[in-house]
């Protein structure tokens, strides 16, 4: 190459996706009780934001604000960069914010396809001849679950015969089918064994890879870290930090979650005295 030849310019890094959901210094009070104070984080399409904390940390209050059950008393809640105040859960759904709670809102004795739709079943015919389109409902259920990597044996089997992880996966696929852009998951792995928790984490990754913004509420850093892009730690309603994955490793996340200095002090108390 001649001395005057120019090297090819280095391509600029792709800009990071803008947050789809963001909260800034969110606070909520019930009388004199501080349920949540000064909590900030964000999640973009194709990302997972993990909210970690023990019981009483404020996770449930944050979920209820994000899903429209409560309104924040302080701070800002933004969707697509626009400040909003959600009047109710219907307003959240209209914005594409779907919440999957621990109880899953399923009817165990009903078939999988009925639980997939729950009041929004497809119909055919008009007027007095309108009736449920069972074949279409079954086909959509099977197709949507397959798109999430879920292979069901029979869409007519009662949903109560599924494992806990499989029921979580049906709820996640249902939210995706009905247009969720933000998926809020309330402790989806808390009552599951190791294998079933792994099943749910795989479906969370599937939702992320389909471009959804996922808010994953959990008390288990070992479940959060493999799928998470951001981590918010809550303790007694306050934030201990909002970290990108590049800023915190699993050991540090676990230490913060466990209480750090408090855990070290407890371990000293529990140690046996050396035997003579």
UniProtKB/TrEMBL annotation:
UniProt GO molecular function: ATP binding; ATP hydrolysis activity
Domain ABC transporter: 21-261
Record keyword Protein biosynthesis present: no
InterPro entries xrefs: AAA+_ATPase, ABC_carbohydrate_import_ATPase, ABC_transporter-like_ATP-bd, P-loop_NTPase
Alphabetized UniProt keyword annotations: ATP-binding, Nucleotide-binding
Domain of life: Bacteria
Protein name: Sugar ABC transporter ATP-binding protein
Organism from which the protein derives: Rugosimonospora africana
């Amino acid at each position: 190459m001649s001395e005057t030849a120019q090297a090819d310019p280095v391509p600029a890094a792709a800009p990071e996706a803008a947050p789809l959901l963001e909260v800034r210094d969110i606070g909520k009070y019930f009388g004199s009780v501080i349920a949540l104070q000064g909590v900030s984080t964000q999640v973009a399409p194709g990302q997972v934001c993990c909210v970690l904390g023990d019981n009483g940390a404020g996770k449930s209050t944050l979920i209820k604000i994000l899903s429209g059950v409560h309104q924040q008393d302080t701070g800002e809640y933004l969707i697509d960069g626009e400040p909003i105040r959600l009047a109710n859960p219907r307003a959240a759904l209209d914005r594409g914010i779907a919440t999957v709670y621990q109880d899953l809102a399923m009817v165990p004795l009903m078939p999988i396809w009925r639980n997939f739709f729950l009041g929004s079943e497809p119909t055919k015919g008009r007027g007095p001849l309108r009736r449920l389109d069972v074949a279409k409902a079954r086909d959509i259920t099977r197709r949507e679950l397959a798109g999430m990597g879920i292979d069901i044996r029979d869409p007519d089997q009662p949903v109560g015969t599924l494992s806990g992880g499989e029921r979580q996966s049906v709820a996640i696929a249902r939210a995706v089918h009905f247009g969720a852009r933000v998926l809020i998951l309330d402790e989806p792995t808390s009552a599951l064994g190791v294998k079933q928790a792994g099943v749910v984490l795989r479906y969370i990754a599937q939702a992320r890879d389909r471009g959804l913004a996922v808010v994953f509420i959990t008390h288990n850093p070992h479940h959060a870290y493999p799928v998470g892009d951001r981590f918010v730690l809550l303790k007694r309603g306050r934030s201990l930090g909002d970290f990108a994955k590049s800023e915190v490793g699993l050991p540090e996340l676990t230490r913060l979650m466990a209480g750090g200095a408090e855990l070290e002090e407890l371990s000293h108390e529990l140690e046996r005295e050396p035997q003579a």
